[in-house]
Amino acid sequence: xxxxxxLALATYLLVADGIVALLVAGLVGPLGALLLxxxxxLTWSARVRALVGPRAVRALLLxxAALALVDLFYFAxxxxxxxxxxxxxxxxLRLLTVRAPRDLRDAGLMSFFVLVASSAVDVSFGFLFVFVxxxxxxxxxxxxxxxxxxxxxxxxxxRLRGELAWVVTGASAGALVITAALFFVIxxxxxxxxxxxxxxxxxxTGFSERVELGxxxxxxxxxxxxxxxxxxxxEPPPAVLERLRWRGLALDVYNGAAWGASRGRRMTLRPSLAxxxxxxxxxxxxxxxxxxxxxxxxxxxxLFVAPGAVRVTIRQSAVITDDLGSLLIPTPSSRVQYxxxxxxxGGLGGRPPEDLDPSVRSRYLQLPPLPARVxxxxxxxxxxxxxxxxxxxxxxxxxxTNLRYSLNLDHTPGxxxxxxxxxxxxxxxxxxxxxxxAIMLRSIGIPSRVVTGFQRGEWNPYGNFFAVRMADAxxxxxxxxxxxxxxxxxxxxxxxxxxxxxxxxxxxxxxxxQWYRYVVSWSQQDQVEAVARxxxxxxxxxxxxxxxAPGRELARVALAVAALVALWLVWRLxxxxxxxxxxxxxxxxxxxxRALRVLARRGLVPRATETAREFAARVAAASxxxxxxxxxxTDAYERVRFGAATLTAADVVDLAVLATRLATPxxxxx
Amino acid sequence: xxxxxxxTARLEDNIARCVxxxxxxxxxxxxxLLARGHLLIEDVPGVGKTTLASALAHSIGGEFQRIQFTxxxxxxxxxxxxIWQADRGAFTFQPGPLFANVVLADEINRTxxxxxxxxxxxxxxxxxSLDHTTRPLPRPFMVLATQNPHEYEGTYPLPESQLDRFMxxxxxGYPGAADEKTILLGGAAAPETVKPVLTPGEVxxxxxxxxxxxxxxxxxxYILAIVTATRTSSLLGLGVSPRGSRALLxxxxxxxxxxxxxxxxxxxxxxxxxxxxxxxxxxxxxGGDGGAGALDGETAIRAILEDVPVPR
Lengths: 670, 312
What we know:
The complex is a heterodimer of chains A (670) and B (312). By secondary structure, chain A is of the alpha+beta class. Helix content of chain A is 51%, strand content 13%.
């Protein structure tokens, strides 16, 4: 393949990568991406390009400008979209009018801005691949552009060889490493920049302060990951695991068709400087379960936590609690990351909880008019129960054994949904089970409430986290037992989350989690912590060297030497610029320019009236080794510069190596 | 390319057998041949001017004529003459010695300007006009002229217009001691004994190849810069004509071909500048004639070369 063709290919791949980035970020739909792809393919065709003369290009450009204005003011949903449309149009136009390798390079680099724009709205793991692909492609593209423009302009038939692939791959890897290093070191400004576009996936009705019966059922087939819960201490013991749920909103008002939350006492808590906020008083000195949670934008303002949360660490202006024990945040626009410490013991053995205030108690006993047989059934099941706890246990057992779990929720209008569930359909989803339990308990005078949240999800051993999917959405019941407090009962006979994922999927998901943790949400605070860790490690070394005085002396000397070497290097690298010949160096092939630079460092600079050969002879007189190398380079230089010869890619690399070898006096190894 | 190199190497070696120790001079002679130019060899008597010209003439096949110029020579002695032939009742043209592939004009400055100028048209246009008819000269056609420096007795200096028609002017110079010893020992072949190594057709082929040597624009600019400098230099009273710059380019091309390249480098131009330009310029008279400040053309051209930046 010729370098010119490879350059064109690399450029088109870069632009295609930009289009994929838009697709991944959801800035264009599949149809839009397809259209862009077709447009891109059209610009490749020489016949299409021939159709578009300079006048047509000018007309197109004007049209694009006008359309962009209209688009910005009337059509685009956000400023960013408008600019993106304009950018894409400009890239395609540029490709349509390619006259020189430079134009291709411009188009490829413009595609980078598409990536930048996508990165503003896309934090998915897939973006990493798009980015790495761009980096690879861009390295290729720039290198090829360099090769093509460095060889003779008349003929673009520079051939490519295999070695080049290694060079490019090495260069890309280097660029990746440097980029990664910069990413973790450069101060974060992204958090301060204005969000161009609030993109929030409209989530269903599952987690709001008013939940229709059956609402959760709609999302129980959605396998999208809703949250990931990282447990730094590893997988919890089975006893804890058994009861682990991610509690979201508690609901206390039932109107016969939907549950809602009464607007009770609400408290706005301000996090401390470290982002910590105490949301409850610890009841027992037992162990805490630490959870680090990444909650996707699922359209709720609730925070999901393990029951018994006492402290939340979050980067938000406030955390709102209510007397139902729900935790809310004021601006749930995008992905939320927080950490929670929960008491696992559930208050056992600790300070006994106060009994419910009568007015509060009545809230948890509120009931709409119900068919009489619901209450009758509850009384019949619990006729032998000694206390509230036993009654709740008996009712839970009845529901989970006698009724079937089903997502088929045909409701006959006019019938009471709970009555229909208990006596006619005898099947339903978790909300029906939870509602039935809560209503039956209330009908026999036991305070209860419905809680929505998630089942614990699938444990990922590679990343030590639970992957919680939308399908894990769940509803259960909390029952107030005198002397114990609120106790969780789950009447749904629903099996635990299906763990159908294979190992590879689990591993990829753990990578994704780390991507969120260490890249997407890598914050200034993380940087501060990382620096602190490095510093404390350094101090440890310093203390060690205090202990060994001679060692410290040695270290000081080594440091001084290193500093001197660094200074010398800087001086060496900086000097040739000032010592450079004043003559014009336009169109000078790169390897020869490099050779001149290297020789200038040795004090050998060609005079203005000195030809390349004369200079080579003078260098040879000064140093036979350098003379031999320079003779080869001069010959190649003349062929390229005056003979319009094209060098193979391998030749270019060889010559560059020869040029750098000029710097080291010694036997020439050509 | 290699084939061309072989041909030219054969020619150079053949001439070098007669002219010992002067490879550069030999090469310049071949340059003039390949560039379709004429050569003026100027030096004191006895350094091998005639030997050089003769060796070249004998090395390429084809017709060779030698004209020994004398002060009583007439143009018809060179060009030829129309004679009345009574039996046919018409004039017939008897071609002079100029009708040959290589013409050695020995001691050209010994003849009168009238005869010298009769060479003008032949050298420039490769044809002879006589009696209202134009007669083409054979190809390849080359004039090798030798002259003694005009300070010597009994010479008519060539006018500028005449000098301008020579592509190159070279000076042979005395041989080195070792080479002169070789000559004394009989190590140099007599020009009459060398065999032709190139046919006229091969010479024409090489001449055409010379035209195709690539000249980068920057090299052309370099030539122009040098030529412009001769026209504006305070050292010179008369600068180089456009014919001179064409001659420099063509000669540099031939030099590149002899060097085995198919493109020009600035070195070619730099090397050929003195032989191609020095005889075309007239030094400005400074400090009276022959005074300490006077320069000859060669020194002036060298000074200019040290002043014009080369393309990078």
